[in-house]
Each structure stands twice: as C-alpha cells, then as structure tokens.
Specification:
The two termini are 37 Å apart. The protein is α/β, with parallel strands linked by helices and 447 residues long. It has a 7-stranded mixed beta sheet with strand order 4-10-9-8-7-5-6, sandwiched between helices. It is globular. It is built from 13 helices and 15 strands. The protein folds into 2 domains: 140 residues, Aspartate Aminotransferase, domain 1; 265 residues, 3-Layer(aba) Sandwich (Aspartate Aminotransferase, domain 2), CATH 3.40.640.10. The model has no long low-confidence stretch (mean pLDDT 95). Bound molecules: pyridoxal-5'-phosphate (PLP).
Length: 447
Amino acid sequence: MVFNEKGRALNLDRHSNSDLARRRKLAVPQGVAVKNDLYVESAKGSEIFDIEGRRYIDFAAGIGVLNVGHRHPTVIHAIEEQLKRTLHTCFHAVPYAAYIELAEKLNALVSKNHAHKTALFNSGAEAVENAIKVARVFTGKQEVIAFSDSFHGRTLMALTMTGKESPLKTGLGPMVPGVYRVPFPRDIPGASKDAAPSQESISTQQSLNAITSLLASEVSGLAAIIIEPVQGEGGFNIAPPQFLEALRGICDANGALLIVDEIQSGFGRTGKYFAFQHTAVEPDLIAVAKSLGGGLPISALIGRAEIMDAPAIGALGSTYGGNPVSCAAALAVLDIIESEQLLDRAETLGARIQSLLSPLCLEFTAQIVELRRTGAMVALEFTDAEVVAPIVTMARERGLLLITAGRYGQVIRLLPPLVIDWGLVDEAMGVLCACTRQVLLNGPETC
Ligand SMILES: Cc1ncc(COP(=O)(O)O)c(C=O)c1O
C-alpha cells in the first residue's frame, strides 16, 4: 500500500501522469531530478508514447543515449539472442567472447596508428573515474586539469572535475584534491568586453594562458588534462581544433596524458565516431558510454595499450562491467552505425536542422545568441535563460521533447536519434520554431 502526504491510501490502478508524479514525489528523492514529468508507456524509433496515450517526438533521446533510436530491431534481436545464452557470469570470474570482440572493435575505431586496449564499465562516470586511475598509475603523478562548464559525472572524482557547482556539488565537499579548472574556450559572436557572464567570450589563447599560469604557479605533477571535445551539459561548446592540438602539446611537454570524454559526443553524434576525430589530435585515453549500448548500460575506457596496461592485474574492473547483454547490444549498435551510414546521416541531419532553424535565428538576432553544431549535436543558445523553460514546456505540450543545457540553462540542445525520419525532423522543428516565436514575441509568461 502506498500513502500520500496526508496518510490517505493511493489508488495504484489509476494510471495517469499526475498520479505517477504524485507517487514519484513520495517515493523518490527530489535529488533525482525529472526533466519531463510524463510517464512512458512505450517508445519506438524517435517517438515516445506516454501512459495517457500522447505521442512525443523525442529530441532528448535518453540524453544522448539513443543515436540508433528506441528499440532498434537489430539491437533487440541481439539482446534476445544473448538472453537465450547467458545473462551474467562476471567477466572477471568467467569471461566471454563478446567483451573481447567489443574491445577489439572499439580499439580499431579510435586509431589506426597505435595498439589500443579497452576496459568495459557500466556508466560514464565510471569510465571517467578509471581514466584518472590509469593516468595516475601510468604517469606516477596525481594532478589533473579540467574545464569550466564541463560535466564528467556524479561519482566523487568525476564530480570534482565537473565544472558546475550548484546543485551538483552542494554540500558534498571536500572534493578530491589535486584537480584544477581553467576556462573552456567560447567564441560568442559579437560579444563585448562588458558582456553578461552568460555571453562572455573566452579565447583559445586565454584558456591556454590559464593552463600555462597554473603550470608555472601551482601544478608540478600533472597527470592528465581531461576535456570534452564538444561539451555536453555545458551547452555544446566546441573546442577549436587548434586548442586540442595545443593541449596535446602541453601534455607531451609535461609527461601528462590527454583524456577526452566522448560520453555524450561519441558514436556518430558529431558525424565521426568520436568528436576528436574532426582534428588531427590523438588522445591517450577516451571515455565513452551513452549511445554505445543503444539503451543498455555500458561504458568503456579505450587507450594506448601501454598506458592501459599500467594498472596491476585486478586494479581495473567491476562486477557488471561489460555485461554480456550490454556487449551484445553494443556490437549491434556498431553494426547499425556502419550499415545505416549514420556518420554521414548525422551531418545531413544537423544541416537540415540548421536550415530549418536559420530563419528563426535571423528573425530574433537580439534574443538568439547563435545556433552552433558539430554534425547532429546542435545547440540553440538564447541571450536570456528565462525564455528557455517556457519554450521547452510549450514544445512538450505540443508533442516535442527537448532538454536544456548551459551554465544558466540558456541553451536548448537537440539530440534526436540519428535514424529519425525526415518528416519527424520537419514536424519537430516546426513546433520548436512556433513555440520559440510565441515566447519571444509575447514573453515567457505566455506559457
Ligand atoms: C560528457 C559526459 N561525461 C560523463 C557523463 C556521466 O555519465 P553517466 O551519467 O553515465 O555516469 C555524462 C552524462 O551526461 C556526460 O555527458
């Protein structure tokens, strides 16, 4: 029996979004935030159906998890076949081929020049934690440089490196010592010197100067620099190629490792398997997760073989890491990216979204800072964060699911499945344009 705040028994047979919202508030802590208070009945491709029968086009896609869409038939088939054989043995206790096959494929995807090795985990945060463990053991040093507006996860080391205080770190200190943060470069078009913090421009040189200054004053044992080549939660800020090249140089000069966090940007989202592949830079370690599993939990740390072999036997791992069902799903995802040519499709999809949103950007030059994208990782940044929540709410009421990003929540980020039908893209962008226009013309309170 479940009771409400007044001790009255709730009728669990009546299924509605509002009932479940009420029960959620009683049963689940508020810290577990919910961006859309609607409850899913089923999902397929790029659409979600809620328990009241409403249909939504899904531009959140599990926060970047569903590059191949909801319940892709090839993923479902691979999972079903694996279920007939084994659910779990723990790779450390009794290993299986799928783990090795997945590791081989990921190694081949990141580099043709050097031998790589891969360890599998369950979540993005775990992959990031292990990246730092490996970097510390390999270099024999401890210190790490991370960036403002970064997001690396919610476990303690990942959280320490994350460049956002509230609400993520509130009351959780002390964080792990030895982590330093510098500004991520951000080129805001037309930004003045006195711009509001949300529109502050940071040049590549300013960022590099901050690192040089840290290395001269505070950091003497740099183990690694960790960066998202395209920031996710931070608002899809794009690291300029010359910046990544300079970081590579700084790491080499200081005997440190360059770690890229491709957890949100990986597996075709940006039009390449990984965002760093838009540059000539080869990172030492690559943390991936999200879209790798096509909806099942799996993450990986991929790195240069000699670096990945630094931790002693038994120093890496987890009970569920690289679970056979998740490995089967991940192998299917990699097949789909190839067979459906999703790298090319990501670029075409991003270009189509850009062309559909361009008239809106031209109409509201004072309110829309910019539309930026790498492949199909598309962000619409607003001058005033106040307008964003009403646009997202209105879009949801009209059947489009969106999520926000950015330090102030001033960005709408678009993460549609890469397999989405063109008709749904056009419909979704029609809704986004109409809602944005309505809110910008009539004010946030219109919603
Ligand atoms: C870039 C990046 N790194 C790390 C994480 C953490 O991943 P997880 O939530 O699977 O721990 C996320 C999650 O949003 C992310 O976007």
